[in-house]
Amino acid sequence: MTATLPPDQADAAATETGRIPRPLRPRLARLAVFLVIAVGFIWGVSGLDVSWDRLRTAPSEAWAILKLMWPPDFATVIERGAIGKVLESVYIAWIGTVIAATLSLPLAFLASNNISPTVVRLPIRQLFNVIRAVPELIVAVVLLGVVPLGAWAGALAIGLHSIGTLGKLSSEEIESAAHGPVEAVEACGGTFISRVRWGVLPQVLPQIASYWLFRFEINVRASAVLGMIGAGGIGSELIAQLRFRNFPEVGAVLIITVAAVVFIDTVSSAIRKRIIAGGSGDPSRLMALVGDLAGSGRSARA
Amino acid sequence: MTDATASGTGERPAKPRPKPLTFLVTIGLVVWTVFTAREVGFRWSTFVTVWTNPLWEKFWPIPWEWVLDRDNVIDPLIETFQIAIVATVIGCGLALPAAFAMSRLTAPNSPTYWVSRIVMSIVRAVPDLFWAKLLVTAIGIGAFAGAWALSIFSFAVMVKLFSETVDGADPGPLEAARAAGSRHVPAVRTGVLPTVLPSYVAYALYVFELNIRASIVLGLVGAGGIGRIVEAQRTFFNFDRILGILVIVFVVVFVIEQISVALRRRLV
Amino acid sequence: MIELKDVSVTYRGGVKALRNVDLTIDDGEFVVVVGLSGAGKSTLLRVLNGLVPATSGSAKVDGIEVVGASGARLRAVRSKIGMIFQTFNLAERTTVLNNVLMGRLSNVPAWRSTLGLWPAADREIALEALERVGIVEKAYVRASNLSGGQQQRVGIARALAQKPTLMLADEPVAALDPVTSRQVMGDLARINSELGITTLINLHYLDLAQEYGQRLIGLRAGELVFDGDIADVDDDTFREIYGRSITTGDILADNDT
């Protein structure tokens, strides 16, 4: 339609129906955004002590190391117990997730505006935010100060950190639950516990359980990383092999890790799909999840 | 919606027995959890002792004059942001064409689609700090390696998120452009890009948030930023200083997230 | 017996939903409440079981004062009042039987109901309730797999499982098609005559009201403007209650099955 209008009118029509909320002139706005990004980028690069020399040589150095990893030396690392360490990473992730799920579920109810009074709700919300802001690696660093080094400390760190995200997502799910069933339980003379158990829980549990599984997938990666600072699992093997620059062994550790992660992602996302079959996902929340996962196989459309 | 009550038998159904699968899965989950708990050394007592540990005293009071000293915390924190910004720009910039190559809708041909898909899922399956550690080994300790690692990782995440948006884009305009005889790249540029650009920007902001969080811990493996300071203080058990750093980091990350979330809301 | 004396409800924000309503309903009556949406029908029902607290006045159900009641006393009143909702309000992801058992919540110890370990006697009551509405064969089906009419029957069974003395139905057929609507209304009328449970139904459709009601109550802008035998009701009555002429939207039509 606009094609038949003279150019200036067509322009006006485009701005009227345009997606940009503020009627800035598009070209000017675009230029401004590019400028901000460019300035930010240049400022950023200035802090990374980059020289042309390094820029030129870095890719080839990285490539050289990648080549050194081939062929991977599985025999040595498996003999050193790499399989057991991968499994340990999975165990750590699982126990961490179980701890987080157990603690976050009641907290999520207390953080929901349809269940809990504001006085209780706001502090718990803030608690979730604080927890979420501290990466599990930092939690682990702190915990390793007071809990003996090892797998248990890692599981605790993961468990504590995951409470933040799980609590937030679960409480959002609870808040979006329909009020009707709750009212029905109330009309039957149900208590607070009954309202939660029969009014809300059946509505939200499938989705929340799938969040747990999602978090488990993320936590497998996280626990692999935790091993690097001494909290048990495959990360410790990676560090050990890198220290002595045994690159074929490093290659083997990487491949084993990738295989385990991909396997768990695949199984877990298949289960999740079954759990929420028929349920509808809120796209914005899914986006947050996918980002959190930082890339599991096929979870985005669960 | 009309009911067929008349067809109902009116007889009480037998209570269905729990399906063997449900039963097995339940038992399996319990056994697996107990087993893993033993393997990681789960101890109830920790939940008590962790609070009564005298070492907590080392966390208090926060030595503010050390924490607020420019050299100690502020400069490394700025370095952290520089890493995150550079990584976001590089990763998201490269992800734009790559995502189009990886979407079912816009991939030029199916080998491109499959190869890029497989490579990307392998890249994503390697945890971000593994990348950082490998790159530190390859090109030396420092923020440069950290920026590299985060670039790779944000590239992978961004490609994943964005290619799925492209998958879901309306194929109509693309077909129209092709029908008008356009070549592949211009067809995608004019037919698909405008409709997915708002979500591209929203995802980029989200990846930036992720990068800020990730860049905090990069230093723990020698890849620059504030994590370097945390690691150094950890070796000397200066937990009070670490707590101070955490407070600063929390405040700054919180502010940045609020801004980013607000921007994203306006876009989507 | 229900006794409302000078009941008013003012919502937060100042909206007056009920104004000085006086009303007495005897045991076993089948009362239909009509009025435009926003006239206060839902509020009237919800005052009776305390889901909406009355701002002033007195509302007694079987001699027990509801206004101002809270905690265990309020739950005790509610346990004797069944309620049926326009949107059914079932827990869709669980079985029909579990939904009906919710009607037994106030008679079962909290730990048992929470764990889903319902006593056999209460299961029996729930199954009997399902038999009464004719869908006992669906007892172990997930509620979400039922049609709208069947879901509303589950809603009725849940209310019946409370062994109520009073049944409140808030627009029970508004979400159903004409044929199913008449079946559900028939169920409610049958339960009223067989068990003698006092029944209060909000309806929008005038022909349904005339067909099933015994006593008609008209609300307009929160005020009780009509109260009388259904036999004395004609189109003029409705015009008066609605404050406008009757349109096709006020009639369910679709002849009897």
Sum up the structure in keywords.
heterotrimer; A: 302 residues; mainly alpha; MetI-like fold; 13 helices; globular; disordered N terminus; disordered C terminus; B: 268 residues; 12 helices; 0% strand; extended
- The level 1 CATH classification of the largest domain in chain C is Alpha Beta
Shape of chain B: extended
Averaged pLDDT of chain C: 91
Number of domains of chain B: 1
Largest sheet: number of strands, sense, barrel closure of chain C: 6 strands, mixed
Mean pLDDT across the residues of chain B is 84
Total of DSSP H or I helical runs spanning 4+ residues of chain B: 12
Total count of helical runs of at least 4 residues of chain C: 9
Total DSSP E strands of chain C: 10
How much helix is in the residues of chain C?
Answer: 25-40%
CATH architecture of the largest domain in chain C: 3-Layer(aba) Sandwich
- Lateral strand order in the biggest sheet of chain C: 6-7-8-3-9-10
Going by CATH, what is the homologous superfamily of chain B? MetI-like
Number of strands of chain B: 0
Straight-line N-to-C gap of chain C: 34 Å
Radius of gyration of chain B: 26 Å
Helix content of chain B: over 70%
Poorly predicted runs of 5 or more residues of chain B: 1-7
CATH topology of the largest domain in chain C: Rossmann fold
General description of the model:
The complex is a heterotrimer of chains A (302), B (268) and C (257). Helix content of chain A is 75%, strand content 0%. Chain A has 302 residues and is mainly α. Chain A is globular and about 75 Å long. In chain A, 47% of the residues are buried. The model of chain A is unreliable at 1-18 and 278-302 (pLDDT under 50). Chain B is mostly helical and 268 residues long. Chain B has one domain: Orthogonal Bundle (MetI-like fold), CATH 1.10.3720.10. In chain B, helix 4 (70-102) packs parallel to helix 7 (143-167) and helix 5 packs across helix 7. Chain C is an alpha/beta fold. Chain C has 2 domains: 1-80 and 164-257, P-loop containing nucleotide triphosphate hydrolases (Rossmann fold), CATH 3.40.50; 89-163, no CATH class. Chain C is globular and about 50 Å long. The relative contact order of chain C is 0.18. Chains A and B meet through helix 2, helix 3, helix 5, helix 6 and helix 7 of A and helix 1, helix 4, helix 5, helix 6 and helix 7 of B.
